[in-house]
Amino acid sequence: MKFRSGNEILGFPKNVKFGIEIEAFNTNTKDLYNSKESEKVFKETGWRPDTKETLSHQGGAECVSGILEDTQKTWENLEQICSHIKKYPGEYGKEVVTDEKCGCHVHFDATEFLENPKMMENFKKLWPEIEELIYKMCNEENDPLRSGAINQKLIPSINLGEPTLKNILSIRTIKQLANLPMQLFNNAVHIFVEKRKGFASPIGQKIQKAIEQDKLKVSYKKYGRLTDKILVGMKADPRRYRGLNLANLSSRNKNTFEFRMSNSSLNPDTIKKNVYLYASVLNTARQMTLNPEYKKEEYEKLLKTDVTEKEKLDATLDLLFDEQSDKEIYERRWESVKDAPVFNKNSKKGFAKGKFNRQDYKQMSSKVPITKLNEAKYYVQDMLNNLNRGKEYVK
C-alpha cells in the first residue's frame, strides 16, 4: 500500500470494501438532492443524498457513497461528488462550506475481522494505543479536530412549542388541568439540562478497560453476524457517537467499522488520505494476524510507556506505514495541530499531554510489593491534584 493522489489506486487488499459519508453546510439542499443534474450525477457515481440526517433539515446536506473498492473509478467519482456539492450554495453565503457541524465518516467491511477472532483481537489491542494520535492525524494540515466531535455541550431545546401544545390539547379532566403547570415546568427545565456528548468521542480507554476485565469478546456466528448477547461486551459503548463506532457490528445490513472522527471536507485528496489512514490501521491488524512476526519490533516499540508523544508518533507511523512519504504526510498533519486547544481541554478523555505512561497493574502487582503500589498511587493522585491547580512537575 502507498498513498497516491488523484485517481490512482492505493493498493488495498482485494477484499477491502468501504463507504464514505460527506457532510456540508450552506447548501441549497432541495436542488442538490433533486435537480436533473444531481439525478444524473448520483446515477453515474452510485452516490446518493441522505435525506434522513438532521443536517439536511438545518441548511446542510449529506451525500453517501455505495459500497466502494480501491479502483480508479472510485476516486474519480469522489472528485465528481465533491465538485458537484460545491455547485449548490445556500442562503448563508456564496460558498458551500464544511464547518463545525460537519463530519466525514468512513465505513469498512468488518466481515474478515468477524470471521477471524485473532484479527479482531489484534485490532482491539492496537486501537487504544494509537487512538489519540489518529485524532491528530485524521484531518488536513492546520485543521484541528472540530470541538463538537468530543466536547460535551448543553443544548437548548427548540421544540418547546410542540410539547406545550400537545400538553394543552391532551387535557380532558380537571386533574389533567391541575397537572399542566408541572408538565410545562418540566419542559422548561429540560431546555437547560439537556446534554449532548461529542459526536465522535474517543473509545480507546473503554476498549482498554474491557480488555483488562476480559469483557471484550468476539465470536463468529454463521453468516458472519455477532449475536446481540456477545456484542454487549464488544461494543464497549452502545452509542454510535464514537470516533470509532462499533455498534454497526450488530447490524445485519452493515457489519462495519465506522471511523467518525474526521472533519468533513470537499477536498477529495483530503478525504482520500483519511480513507488511507483508517485502511492502514486495519491492514496492520490484518498483517499482524496473518504473519505473527510482522513488524514485531515496531509493535513492541509502540507498547513502550513513559515516552514522549513524538516518540509514540514515530512508533505508530513505523508500524502503520512502509513508505517514508506516507509517514511524512501524517507527521505533518500531527505537527500542525498537536497543541490545538481542543486536545488540551480534553486530556481526561484520552488525550494525554506530552507523555504516554500507561501501566498494566496486573503485571506490576506480581513484581512489586503492594505497599510500593499504594505509594505510587498516592503520589500520582497528589501530582494530578497539583496539576489541576496549575503547578508543574519536573523530574
Question: Please, could you describe this protein's structure?
Answer:
The protein is of the alpha+beta class and 395 residues long. The protein folds into 3 domains: 18-146 and 201-356, no CATH class; 156-193, no CATH class; 362-395. It has helices spanning 29-34, 36-45, 72-85, 111-115, 117-137, 161-169, 174-193, 204-212, 228-235, 268-290, 296-302, 309-320, 324-337, 341-344, 361-365, 370-388; strands spanning 18-25, 48-49, 60-64, 104-109, 153-154, 195-196, 244-245, 256-259, 307-308, 355-356. Helix 2 (36-45) packs antiparallel against helix 3 (72-85). The longest helix is centred in the C-terminal third of the chain and has 23 residues, at 268-290. The two termini are 42 Å apart.
Unreliable spans are 154-162, 189-196, 213-239, 352-373, 389-395
Largest sheet: 6 strands, antiparallel
How many domains? The number is 3
Distance N to C terminus? 42 Å
Briefly say what this structure is.
The protein has 395 residues and is of the alpha+beta class.
Helices and strands in order:
Layout: E1 18-25, H1 29-34, H2 36-45, E2 48-49, E3 60-64, H3 72-85, E4 104-109, H4 111-115, H5 117-137, E5 153-154, H6 161-169, H7 174-193, E6 195-196, H8 204-212, H9 228-235, E7 244-245, E8 256-259, H10 268-290, H11 296-302, E9 307-308, H12 309-320, H13 324-337, H14 341-344, E10 355-356, H15 361-365, H16 370-388
Helix pairs in contact: 2-3, 5-8, 5-10, 6-7, 11-12, 12-13
